[in-house]
Amino acid sequence: MTIQEVPQGRLRTPFYSRMSELDTVNSWHEWKGYTTPDELYCAETEYFAIRNATGVFDLTPMTKYRISGPDSLEYINRLVTRDMAKIKPGRVAYAVWCDDRGQVIDDGTIFHLREGEYRLCSQERHFDWLMASAIGFDVSVVEETAEVAGLAVQGPTSYSVLSNMGLDGLGELKVFGLMHFDFQGAELMVSRTGFTGDLGYELWIEPAKAEQLWDALFEAGKLHGIRAIGVHALEMARVEAGYLAAYEDFLPAKATLRTGRTRSPLELGLDWLVDFKKPVFNGRRALAEEQRRGSTWRLVKLDIDGNKTAHHSYIYAKPKNNKREIGFVTSAVWSPICKQNVAIGTVRMPHGEIGSNVWVEIYYQREMHWSKAMAKASVVDKPFWFPPRRSATPPGPY
Are 95 and 108 in contact (CB under 8 A)? Predict the structure, then answer.
């Protein structure tokens, strides 16, 4: 077993020089030691780049671990709830991993780079957990966050932009697939993945070639509305797509102090990621027991009446019985593209069945005056935004 970790500190990504040249609002924050933009021009303008053209987001701070060795598949299959034996080389899998109580530690993507070689990407750092889990396996676990620069290239013109760069064959790449290209003598990996629910790709390259990649990408996209974006625009698109985010829609199991504050995959609507046909994985016994007795919580997607965003709102079963809430909203946004007031929330079972109605208590402020509205909400089962182009192969030019 070989394990290596990288020192941490306040860092700038290899794309920082290019982003800082575009910055007009000086709104940045720290993401796992890296300086990351909230917005560069205007969050709304950047959002419409995602939905109408191409938005480019710097993914470099995402935590990345390279897992390789004779036991790499067995090791990863023990970590996560889905069957990774079904994920062949050249494919990417969305996955969750749990503690022994069946509570979600985090979610992320696992790239099957080559036979016996994987990359695990997540928002949070999990080096200690990966190290403890590697005992008894012949694997190498190396954190390579600083060794891999990443860009999310998302939106309807993203395929056209990348095609202009000369990435031949990209049109045959299916959702959750990956390909390798030569870029100025370096290996460029392109995966058809993203966090926007739209047509999009993620680009991965060594840091020494990051600026050249940025320049080539923006040159190829100058007639296709390409624009760099920050976290605020990405967050709007993320909620529209119905995707979950750690510390927003669930708390990592290792970060909580109080019981009952974590969630299982079954409570997060991720039961499709739990494969009980696998004989062994972390949390299997607890999840099998939960499946037998029933869950305590249920994740819901809400289409809410009105246009007052339901940030941090309580959810009630009836409008006039607001003495005891049944749950709360975790993420909310007014969707410009859907013209809907949408949210993700969690409610106590047996509430929140698809097609049922609930009520959301919304507080909002206008010119220092606070008002309250009880808004009716419908529980839906589909993402709020899921255009056909997202999965079209090949994507049409745009």
Answer: yes
**pLDDT band for position 185 (50/70/90)?**
very high
Q: How many domains does the chain have?
A: 2
Chain-wide mean pLDDT for the chain? 94
Last residue of a domain, one of 216, 241, 266: 241
The answer to the question of residue 18 being in a domain is yes
Same domain, 233 and 329: no
How far is it, in rounded angstroms, from Cα 151 to Cα 125? 19
Q: Is the distance from CB of 141 to CB of 130 less than 8 angstroms?
A: yes
DSSP-assigned beta bridge partners for residue 278: none
pLDDT category at 1 given cuts 50, 70, 90 is low
Taking residues 338-348, what's their average pLDDT? 97
Question: In terms of domains, do 18 and 161 share one?
Answer: yes
Does residue 50 share a domain with residue 193?
Answer: yes
Q: Are residues 206 and 304 in the same domain?
A: no
pLDDT tens digits, residue range 266-295? 999 999 999 999 999 999 999 999 999 999
Q: Are residues 319 and 235 in the same domain?
A: no
Rounded to whole angstroms, the Cα distance separating 155 from 235 reads 14
Q: Compute the distance between CA of residue 41 and CA of residue 19 in angstroms, rounded to an integer.
A: 11
CB-CB neighbours of 66 under 10 Å: 19
Cα(106)–Cα(128) distance, rounded to whole angstroms?
14
Distance of CA 55 to the CA centre of its chain: 16
pTM attached to this predicted model: 0.93
**What pLDDT is recorded for position 386?**
94
334: containing domain: 296-380
Q: Is the pLDDT of residue 231 over 50?
A: yes
3-state secondary structure string across 183-241: ECCEEEEEECCCCCCCCEEEEEECHHHHHHHHHHHHHHCCCCCEEECCHHHHHHHHHHH
